[in-house]
Amino acid sequence: MSRWILGVTGGIGSGKTAVTDHFQRLGIVVVDADLAARKVVEPGQPALAAIAAHFGDRVLDADGRLLRPVLREIVFSDPAQRKALEAITHPAIRETLERELTAADSPYAILASPLLWESGQSALVRRTLLVDAPEHLQIARASARDGVSPGQIEAILKAQWSREQRLARADDVLLNDGTLAALQAGVERLHAGYLQEAST
Questions:
Q1: Is 27 labeled as ligand-binding?
Q2: At which positions is ATP bound (predicted)?
């Protein structure tokens, strides 16, 4: 892929969606890794057939759809099973992302991925933008949004890269600890720079 691609990432509750929504309002195509991950396991997709072949019919409902909670329980209790699942899904996800990014018709495109570095998807992008927020804000936002206990949010945070690891790897950082208007102004400032960089 020769197009100029920005990778946008951030921990749970950091405000990634608010940021990518504003980039979209500015005319930039956003390709979402989470949506790609859902698409590749829809009925009729080769990845779903491979998952059923490996894990058995217990991971499918009566309509042949993936039972995510059942699969999640299996893979999070056994690292070898998680690796087996990733070996099935990661190539399919990457292929979907590459296809959608190549088809993007904006001056540059965005790959939004919560696990940009951990998944190796950062290899697809020219520059990375971290949406950053203090941990107490992440926990408060995510538990209010998802109706999940702060304890569960903390467990998710521990499973992801630390804030320090992300800050050390990011090319650009957008701190989201204020108002939505301030966040959107930050997006617009970065967007002007990215337009310039993508056109050279």
A1: no
A2: 13-18
Cα dist from 147 to 18, 142, 153, 172, 173, whole Å: 19, 8, 10, 31, 28
Q: What is the pLDDT along the chain (200 residues), one digit of tens a residue?
A: 448 999 999 988 888 999 999 999 999 999 999 999 999 999 999 999 999 999 999 999 999 999 988 898 888 778 899 889 989 998 999 999 999 999 999 999 999 998 899 888 999 999 999 999 888 887 777 777 766 677 777 766 676 788 888 999 999 999 999 899 999 999 999 999 999 999 88
What are the residues facing 164 on neighbouring strands? Answer: none
Per-domain boundaries in the chain: 1-28+108-200, 39-105
Q: How far apart are alpha carbons 75 and 159 in whole angstroms?
A: 14
> Does the reported pTM lie above 0.90?
no
User: Is 179 annotated for ligand binding?
Assistant: no
CB 178 within 8 A of CB 134: no
Annotated binding residue 2: no
17 is in an annotated binding site: yes
Amino acid at site 133: A
Q: Is 14 annotated as a binding-site member?
A: yes
Annotation-wise, does 15 bind a ligand? yes
- How far apart are alpha carbons 11 and 142 in whole angstroms? 10
